[in-house]
Request: fold
Amino acid sequence: MTVDELLQPILNTTATLQLTDGPETIPNWDSLAQINIITAIEDAVGGELSTAEVLSLKSVGKVVDTCRAHGLELTAT
Reply:
């Protein structure tokens, strides 16, 4: 799975996502999108994220790191 496949539908974009992208650079990354990102990660990894992990999800790169920490090899383009 790629990070684009995971996040583009949630963020309602077709743009290729960069690891440094986050709420500051993606207009649709609002609080509702954040909740949906957390839910999508938990569904993909089959478990819950810790509070620290949830709070760290402030960029595409952190999404990739968190997924990999849970055994999901999420690739960036």
Notes: DSSP finds four helices and no strands in the chain. The radius of gyration is 11 Å. Helices lie at 3-11, 31-45, 51-56, 60-69.
